Amino acid sequence: MAEPRNAVTLPPLPFAMLIAGATLTVASHTLWLPFWVDVTAAALLIWRAFVSIRNGALPARWLLIALTLAGAMGVFFSYRTIMGRDPGVTLLVLLLFLKLLETRAGRDVFVVAFLVYFVALANFFYSQSIPIAGLMLLTVLVTTTALVGFSAPQRPFVDDLKTAGRMLAQAGP
């Protein structure tokens, strides 16, 4: 059996920004998600932060599979289905944090970033208010800053933030 690999290849500041983007995205969903999902997401986030800070071993594949199956069963028992808006968003939130927990390399970073973007968009299923739109814009800015930081980890953070802000400004109407 292969040993779990350590999380040593990811630059710390961009990865912290990616975690912040995921946290901001899910924070806006806490009103709609079951309480156990909020607690599970927080526990997975703390676990990942602990692994990153201590440079510890990432969880084994069998444990991730077991957590994924347990999460899917939890969604099924909460909603009596896994189809539909509420169970689908709940499952996406769980899968986002499970993917964040297993992130080892650059390709995993892109998957997490796109999951963050997708979960941010899913928030508009519940509310299209100006405060929610502002929070989602902040989430997109933080996540885009993380992606820019991963592309050039040696650059200063302020330059990454300026680049991400410029990209978002150019993408606007």
Structure report:
There is one protein chain. By secondary structure, the protein is an all-alpha fold. It has one domain. Helices cover 73% and strands 0% of the residues. The protein has helices at residues 12-27, 35-54, 61-79, 85-102, 106-122, 130-151, 157-171. The termini are far apart.
- Number of separate domains: 1
Percentage beta strand: under 5%
**Bulk shape:** flat
Strand-pairing-aware structural class: mainly alpha
CA-based gyration radius: 16 Å
For the sheet with most strands, the description reads:
none
Distance separating the two termini: 52 Å
The proportion of residues forming helix, as a percent range, comes to over 70%
Number of helices: 7
Q: What is the number of E strands? A: 0
Helix-strand topology string:
HHHHHHH
Mean of residue pLDDT values:
90
Q: Return residue spans where pLDDT drops below 50 for at least 5 consecutive residues.
A: none
Label this structure with key terms.
173 residues; mainly alpha; 7 helices; 0% strand
